[in-house]
Design a protein that fits this description.
globular; Cytochrome p450; binds protoporphyrin IX containing FE; about 425 residues; 3-stranded antiparallel sheet; alpha+beta; 5-stranded mixed sheet
Amino acid sequence: MTQTTLPPGPRRPAFVQTLEWITNPERFMRRCRDRYGSAFTVRLGPRADVVFLTEPDAVRAVFQGSPQDMNMGDINGLFRRVLGRKSLLVIDGDEHLQQRKLLLPPFHGERVAQHTAAMLAAAEDDVASWPVGAPFTLQPRMQSMTLNVILGAVFGLQPGPRRDELRVLLARLLELNTTLATTLPQLRHELGGRSPWGKLMSCTKEVDRALYAEIARRREQSDRPGDVLSLLLDAEDEGGEPMTDRELRDQLLTMLVAGHETTATALAWAFERILRHPDVMMRLRAELAHGETSYLDAAIKESLRLRPVVPITARKLAVPFSLGDRHYPAGTVLMPCIFLLHRKPDLYEAPEAFRPERFLGTTSAPYTWIPFGGGVRRCLGAGFALAEMRAVMQVVLSRVELRPAQRRDERIVRRAFTLSPSEGARVVVERRLA
Ligand code: HEM
């Protein structure tokens, strides 16, 4: 019989649940799962019933649902003021599909492969400056590398004053955009420009000025290189229309915000995990010495399984939707929970153990490994992120011998929308290798 009630979940007031979800997402998700099972309803915000889903079949049904029936733009509405009303993250339905079609070709495999040399060079440059013998934090180093890679591969900016100007502005925008004070709608007041939100708004204006100038300059260029912006300037929709300046600006910022912190954090986690598993490290080194990368790819997959940078994804129902024996009313938010699905003991033996071998020589069953989400909203830059992780890890592992600065595992903590290592992956370079 179909049930119209939502799955059970915590009964505490919405603001308490929201606070727990914000301050300690890992404990919140684990406790809910242990108490209520594979699907549970939580209250995040005054009126929002959010159903966490952790079974591959349920997640598949959501990812395969019609884009007209399930929205994401509404949920991502808080990004609109910075990323713009055309951002891929805030649009839905036909408009989303039309923009996505234009944005996909620059992220196809052979296009991404053209950026490998730049990825390797960005890593080489950065690693050369790492101190030997003194502890330092990897995450900011990874952020610097991923920012340089995006500026080159996506924005098409070559080293020089224009790139320096945009780098400073964009780094500031990214920093302001990831503070809690600018992610909580309640704290979004300009207060004469002095509040974190006010600062973010004025920084966004400066970024806009520089970005629109760059887009105008690139439109004039006759011989454009193979970066994402160049390809988008030449792209046309089915009616033969090119992208507008507004669309280009919004999608460039969206790729930056969606692709920079995520990739840097995924890299920080990969090192945090590998450095605490000397057997894995030894095998990686041995394999890389022979020019092989299959174990490295497995280690990257395993790290993204155990430490998914984005713990959930979400779809808001525009119409009622049936899932198994439950009937969800329109307005319900369904959240495929990447974090909990990845630790299901029926999908992964000893799910909390870090074992890259589990991904060697096999392909994951559908909807059992979903760090990049799925369906028509699946991460646009998944292939790009994996290629970048592979390039950076190859360089780091072949240039320096690292050890963790502390033996204890780093805790999983929230940093705006991502789950980060609590100390930012603190390491020590023991010696340089080449
Ligand atoms: C390890 C790094 C990354 C992780 C873990 C990650 C994860 C995700 C996830 C979970 C989603 C939501 C998918 C869904 O709702 O089904 C997403 C969406 C998206 N990601 Fe990524 N991402 C990463 C890197 C990147 C990069 C490098 C770029 C671009 C340069 C990028 C661009 C995007 C965009 C544009 C979307 C929105 C897609 C849409 O709504 O159609 N991401 N990402």
